[in-house]
Every structure is written in C-alpha cells, then in structure tokens.
Amino acid sequence: MASVVIITILAGCTASKPLNDSTVSATLWVQNSAEYEALTTMAYQSAEAQLDTALHTDSWTASLEQQGNDYGSLPPAVVLDVDETVLDNSAFQARLIKKSESYSSKKWNNWVREQKADPVPGALSFTQAAEAKGITVIYLTNRDVSVEEATYQNLKKVGFPLKKDVDVLLTNNERPGWSSDKTNRRKYVAENYRILMLLGDNLNDFLPAKDRSGSERKKFVSEHKNRLGTQWFVFPNPVYGSWEDALYNFDSSLSPEQIEAQKLEKLDTKN
C-alpha cells in the first residue's frame, strides 16, 4: 500500500509540473479558444477586403522601404511572416510543456522537418485570394535556410500558393546580410515588387524593431497606426516573441530568476 501511495504522489507531481510553465495558458488559448480563431480570421478577412483597393491604387505601399514614386509600376505582392502568421506551431510548444523541456534550435528544426504545422485560421483563404488576383505571395521567415525545403513542403502540403519559377520563401541566412532583423529582406522585396500588405505576429515583421525597448515599440505603433488594418495586419501570439524579450531589455545574461523578477516589475497594479 505504501508503494502505491508513493507512486500515486509521484505521478501527481509529474502530471502537475508542466502546469508551472508560463506558456501553458497561452498555448491552450491558441489551440482551444474560439476567440483566437475569430481574431485571426477577422484579420485575414479584413486584409482580403482591402486587396482590390490596394491593387488598383498605384501609390499604395505598405513598405517603409519604398519611398518616392518609382514603385508604382512594380508587380504587386503581399508579404507574410510564417510562424504564427500562416503556420500554427502550437503543437511544438505543447510538446515542450508536456515533456517539461525548454526550447532549443535543434528541437525547433526537428519539428520543422516533420512538416506538421497547420494553417493559421484564415491564412489559406487570404493567400489563395491574393494569388487569384495576380498578386505574388511572399513568405518572409526567420526559419533558418537549413530548413527552407521542409518549410516549403509544409506550406505546399497544406495548400499555400507557391510560385515554381520565383523564390517566394525568404529565410534567415539565405543570403549574406539576411538576418533575423528582416530589414534587408524587405528591402530586397521592395526592389522587385510593390508591397501591398505586410502581415505578421511580431513588430519586426513591419519595421526595424529588433532589440527595441517596450516604450520604443509602442511609439512605433503610434507613429504608424494609420497603416493598421489597411496595410499592416498583426496577429496574436501570446506564447513567444520579442514583446517578451523587451520586458527584460533583451538581456540574455540574466538568470531565469532575474528575468522573472523583471517580468513581475512590469505588472501594473495601479497602486
């Protein structure tokens, strides 16, 4: 009997341990809430409703890299982030939680190679509608070039439009200077296409926001609020992102305890 009690207690501890992970509720929300599906669908439907106006307005550009009037004759394109914008990777996060494991690039790349990510709700309809109007769909992702083929096959498998004769999947480190900052890749696209819309879950999908403080990021949003909902479409991602890193000023030297303390300081109780 004593051994049964001990086993039961240990089993209970093992089962409850993952619930201490800070991403549990966020991952459950993405995977189970009707609200998440409603938000992503609403964003994509709003973007699709703007396509004709954007397409037939020569001066329309969503890109800060396109200045002057020399882009009006370029072929149109929409530029989308991949992870948590067109592909839902919440299953990968769920695995980490259930196994009480931490993220690593090796585990992430192994997940990417499985090609099991599902479409974010609304993404297929939008990208297929854009393609039907003659708009090139470009995927600008911070997945590494080493998993570009697996990413391409995942996108293809679930039905996303992909041109055969043009590289529309632009990955991190694919070319010299193409870093996680994304600015140089947006410039590359802006030289070849009139960018009608930018869609992503991270501020860095729209402008150079890497390593910027929380106050700077909010200032960016305020400065470009007129683009939101017409040229820029932001998707909810409560699980991870540079918004979280900004809470502790992107200081990777901090211990987990110090990071936790920094996060707690950011909680506003209005006291």
Automatic annotation (TrEMBL):
Source organism: Fodinibius salinus
GO cellular component, one term: cell outer membrane
Keyword Signal: yes
Keyword match Hydrolase: no
UniProt entry keywords in alphabetical sequence: Signal
Name this protein carries in UniProt: Acid phosphatase
Pfam families reported for this sequence: Acid_phosphat_B
